[in-house]
Amino acid sequence: MGELFQARTVWEARELLGEHIKADYPVEQVPLLEAMGRRLAQDLTALDAVPGFTRSTVDGFAVRARDTFGATESLPAYLDVTGEVLMGQDAAAIGEVGVGQAWRMPTGGMLPPGADAVVMVEYTEDLDELTIGVTRPVAPGENIVLAGEDIAAGAGVLSRGHLLRPQDLGLLGAVGVSSVPVLVPPKVGIISTGDELVETWEQPGPGQVRDINSYALYGQAVAAGAQPHIYGIVRDNFNLLLDRLKQALVECDMVLLSGGSSIGTRDVAARALDTLGSPGVLFHGISIKPGKPTVGAVVEGKPVIGLPGHPVSAMVVFDLLVTPLLRHGVYLDDPLEFPVRARLTRNMRSASGREDYLRVRLYQENGELVADPVLGKSGLISTMVRATGLARIASEKEGVEAGDYIEVKLF
Ligand SMILES: Nc1nc2c(c(=O)[nH]1)N[C@H]1C(S)=C(S)[C@@H](COP(=O)(O)OP(=O)(O)OC[C@H]3O[C@@H](n4cnc5c(N)ncnc54)[C@H](O)[C@@H]3O)O[C@H]1N2
Ligand code: MOO
Hints:
Largest sheet: 6 strands, mixed
Helix content: 10-25%
Number of helices: 7
CATH class of the largest domain: Alpha Beta
Number of domains: 4
CATH topology of the largest domain: Molybdenum Cofactor Biosythetic Enzyme, Chain A
CATH superfamily of the largest domain: MoaB/Mog-like domain
Bound molecules: ligand LQZAQKY5, molybdate ion
Structural class: alpha/beta
């Protein structure tokens, strides 16, 4: 088979896939503690305000701020201590802070009616049991959090599709959401192809190697929040591959196969992908290194991606084409995709017209983050293990020099 398709950029490949993918995942309700890392299935609104009452942020005395105006260490404002608020207590049920009065307050306690600020205990002195001197004035609103200042009742708090983080669980707890509607994680089928492959528990004979990609891709799918299913090793045989692909397509939302994607005579992936259904193969080749011989197809709304056989290439392409899709269901123009800037330790050549992805090891040197390329061919899985991230060299560049800044995403 010749080069039937022109090589696409990563973004063109994403657009082509995105146009035909129908990510329509079912919804399930899970307890809040099981919602970490899951995608929210609907917009959520806060029923209650947080906090539900105005509260102190310090230990001290609730006062009327104007009673403290002009107070200094040499001329304190003297106030009568007429009450105390305890933690968790309804301060409004006790009474009201009057003019010239102060109530003892714990951090987080409810501000009593009448008071509009809290003086920190450090800026008071006890004159006797019932009188304090305030040595520094407070402004109205000082050292308090207003009712609804964190979250207003009725406010939209999180949107559909959001990937829930630890702080999101905290917020949902705060607004009383104890069970969360989330999208069922997409099922991803993983097939490894090649006559040379044997299982991990087998002893490889001459010319044989153990399957690496099934495990690495499975791990990447788990890390991206999907449910991977291994469909095992398939020999380089068109009909066997077609059968396995069909089975995986029925059972999964997305199918990945690795190997058999380049243009050798025995390479069958592109041919098999094109016979599965409409629209079929959308591109064959991406202008990146490593990862060029990638085949992208969509069959009845489900993405089917033929990843290159070399383990590093397969993992890089997974990171670029599969992870964003599993995370968000669609391809977003994500400004945080390569969030780390680091200085390169050595000159690296790169061909213009092709995006290069370098495995790099990040560390600190002279107070600065540096990226040291992990050199080695794309068949060497150990290079991925030594690397901490992936750096991108833009396609218009013919190389990058030692000391240049590069953008890195962490593994
Ligand atoms: N004449 C050319 N040869 C190659 C080209 C090219 O442009 N012209 N491209 C090279 C590049 S780049 C890559 S990447 C590979 C892609 O090869 P395939 O996707 O067709 O994959 P295979 O030929 O089946 O395997 C390549 C390599 O990877 C090993 N492999 C495959 N699957 C696994 C697995 N599950 N676990 C471990 N290792 C695996 C396989 O044994 C081969 O060594 O083609 C280059 N060739
Ligand atoms: O581009 Mo291949 O994908 O170098 O290893």
